[in-house]
Design brief:
Number of strands: 39
Shape: globular
Oligomer: single chain
Strand order of the largest sheet: 8-11-7-13-15-16-17
CATH superfamily of the domain at 122-421: Peptidase S8/S53 domain
Length: 717
């Protein structure tokens, strides 16, 4: 159960980090080394995954496992991840592991599977290149071997003549790593053949990884085969076996290995069944080190995305057909970012041949290739920059702006590459309104160039479209740079302020689109209208159609209140709508959504930017595990009911309890968390200590939020 609680946002302070995500020291994972490990166990799996924070902790955990008579089924000392098969009771081992120093998480081992639909034969030849506007993008850049794309899949057949010119090699001549067989030979060997009974078996996953690699980076302009979207190096990381199966252990290890060995982009045309702690930690590890992660949304045709696509810090990709309609098999939902061609995609196969494949597996590599082209043009882009620009430059499909069915639209290679190749001026931070005779601040970004030299940049404001009533001082620097002016004057009465930022980059002048800021008295029903918007989001995005009818029945019982509320807020919302829409669109720009718009056109409002990190608290019976969680600003903390029987404590409420009773402080409160798998989240943007308890049982917990500056967590004052 996903609940949106607006009070959590109201009592928090939003923080935007300038520039790319800074790396953190290996093994930190933003977790207190003395804290209890995260435990994610249903009790039904035959195996567990142990994640450790260093070599010493790994060795200690291995000794502990062997002392219990358990079997190590997967071992990667380099990544600190171990798979363990258990027989009989495991409670003692799990408890001891969870309390052991250096153990980050203990979780059920989950099955990973490849994502594509082999039942849709192809009728066209590389129609996708036209759809993603590849030919126009190639006029700007074809890609570079300075950029490495890691393909986490069944391996890559690097002997293919269309692959071999672009295959990655390390200093010892190896082309990647094989986490299935734990060796340096990640060849794609998923072939058809005879089984032990002599029966012919057609392997549906034949050369899946080779196909994905060809979409990304098959050699172009070599007079043979197909044209890959980006001429980059292809790193083979084998995390799936010859049946197209793996585990979250192999995938998480692949992510960490690719990150540590120089990958700039990781593409994962696969899905893991359920939330995986070890996989989420690996994703955050890669993102914090500047790696762009792209994953397939899944092929179930449902509104639930698979993992890792559904995680934060991952670009989630759905599939469209040649008519630019969402493929029937493609998953959709609130985590979806963009769409890409995924039906009848012609690409490389083993043995020097080619084949058609369909699925979100075929869609994801198109987006990964676009990310690689962007990094070729501007290597300084952060993962947030790349994801934001891809989303903002996508071509709308079903609706204007983002929607849960098709995300931001179909990826545009040309739009994304062009946006980072040419200088652009974007107003990134401005008030949604300003009071009469008040003051306000404005921030703008000068981006693009190679980098470009900014000899002059300033802000102008007026009180009519195109009017210049005042000009700020001028600044200089190099792209990508942000500039801020403060204490700007407002009007004495109601009206509108029109803002334009300008810059001279390498001798050429550029201007932002005009931004409008309403001048008005502060509305006295902000909180109420925010509540109305949160209720609407909860109904239409979280509950789904089944529960919508129930909600409507309740709402119809109080029509007079609802109508009156909308009537009172109509005038205020009309005045604020344009500014709020622009503010949302420009907020996206802070994450890299840069698009130059001519005239007085307006960008559609995107959803608010996601939190930077995630942390999990398990509700097990009447207990919370861990009782104290340490996170950094911008972290989304998720409380999950892991108990197969309803816990006595049915909700999470901020505040304290003592012998006299409950003492809520009103900062946040979840809904009911009764059924197994029910969860609720709150994003903490302000440093401090936040106390909470489970209602009824009064079990308490604490969230300690540390400031996050210069890429490092800071001590809590």
């Amino acid at each position: 159960m996903r609940l949106s609680v607006f009070m959590c946002v109201i009592f928090s302070v939003a923080i935007v980090l300038a520039g790319p995500v800074q790396p953190t020291p290996p093994g930190t994972h933003f977790q207190d080394a003395t804290a209890r490990a995260a435990v994610d166990l249903s009790g039904s799996a035959a195996g567990i995954v142990i994640e450790t924070g260093g070599a010493a902790a790994y060795d200690a955990a291995e000794s502990m496992v062997l002392s219990y008579g358990a079997t190590v089924t997967f071992s990667s000392r380099a990544t600190g991840i171990m798979g363990v098969s258990l027989e009989g009771s495991r409670a003692g081992l799990v408890e001891e592991l969870a309390s052991a120093p250096g153990v980050v998480s203990v979780s059920d081992e989950k099955r990973a599977r490849l994502l594509f639909d082999p039942n849709d034969p192809g009728t066209t030849y590389q129609w996708a290149l036209d759809t993603v506007e590849a030919y126009d993008a190639w006029d700007i850049d074809l890609g570079s071997h300075d950029v490495v794309v890691a393909v986490l899949d069944t391996g890559i057949d690097w002997n293919h003549p269309d692959i071999s010119p672009n295959i990655w090699s390390n200093g010892d001549g190896y082309h990647g790593y094989n986490f299935i067989d734990d060796n340096w030979y990640p060849m794609d060997d998923n072939v058809n053949g005879y089984d032990e009974d002599g029966d012919w078996i057609a392997n549906l996953y034949t050369y899946h990884g080779t196909h994905v690699a060809g979409v990304v980076g098959a050699a172009t302009d070599n007079a043979i085969g197909v044209a890959g979207l980006a001429q980059v190096q292809l790193m083979s990381v084998k995390v799936m076996n010859d049946s197209g199966e793996g585990t979250d252990s192999t995938v998480a290890s692949g992510i960490r290995w690719a990150t540590d060995n120089g990958a700039h982009v990781i593409v994962m045309s696969l899905g893991v069944d359920g939330i995986s702690v070890v996989l989420q930690n690996a994703v955050n590890y890669a993102a914090s080190r500047g790696v762009v992660l792209v994953a397939a949304a899944g092929n179930d045709g449902t509104s639930v995305l698979t993992y890792p696509a559904a995680f934060l810090n991952v670009i989630a990709v759905g599939a469209i057909d040649a008519t630019e309609r969402r493929a029937s098999f493609s998953n959709f939902g609130p985590e979806l970012d963009v769409m890409a061609p995924g039906v009848n995609i012609w690409s490389t196969q083993g043995g020097g041949s080619y084949q058609y494949l369909s699925g979100t597996s075929a869609a994801a590599p198109h987006v990964a290739a676009v990310a690689a082209l962007m990094l070729t043009v501007n290597p300084a882009l952060s993962p947030r920059d790349v994801g934001g620009i891809i989303n903002q430059t996508a071509k709308d499909l079903s609706m204007t702006g983002w929607d849960s069915g098709t995300g931001w639209g179909v990826v545009s290679a040309f739009g994304a590459v062009e946006s980072v190749a040419d200088p652009t001026v974007t107003i990134t931070d401005f008030p949604e309104y300003v009071e009469p005779n008040g003051t306000y601040s404005v921030t703008w970004l000068v981006s693009g160039g190679d980098p470009g030299t900014i000899t002059e940049t300033h802000l102008t404001w007026g009180f009519a479209p195109g009017e210049v009533a005042g000009t700020s001082g001028s600044f200089s620097g190099t792209t990508w740079a942000e500039f801020t002016v403060e204490d700007l004057p407002s009007l004495p009465g109601n009206g509108t302020i029109y803002l334009v930022a300008s810059a001279v980059v390498d001798g050429s002048a550029y201007s932002s689109e005009e931004v409008e800021v309403p001048v008005m008295e502060a509305p006295d029903d902000n909180l109420f209208m925010q509540f109305i918007r949160d209720v609407e989001d909860f109904i239409f995005n979280d509950l789904g159609v089944a529960n919508f009818l129930l909600i409507m029945t309740v709402l119809l019982a109080i029509p007079i209140i609802a109508i009156a509320a909308r009537s009172r807020g109509r005038r205020i919302e009309a005045e604020r709508a344009r500014a709020e829409s622009l503010r949302a669109a420009q907020a996206r720009s802070r994450l890299g959504g840069y698009e130059q718009v001519q005239g007085a056109q307006r960008l559609p409002p995107p959803p608010p930017p996601p939190p930077r990190f995630e942390a999990y608290v398990d509700i097990v019976g009447s207990n919370v595990v861990p009782q104290v969680v340490r996170v950094v600003e911008g972290t989304k903390v998720v409380w999950v009911n892991r108990t197969w029987a309803p816990p006595p404590g049915s909700s999470v409420k901020s505040g304290t309890v003592d012998e006299t009773g409950e003492h809520p402080d009103g900062l946040f409160q979840s809904g009911l968390l009764i059924a197994p798998g029910d969860y609720w989240s709150c994003t903490f943007h302000k440093a401090g200590e936040y106390h909470y308890y489970l209602t009824n049982v009064w079990r308490t917990g604490t969230v300690i939020v540390q400031a996050f500056k210069d890429g490092k967590p800071q001590a809590v004052a």
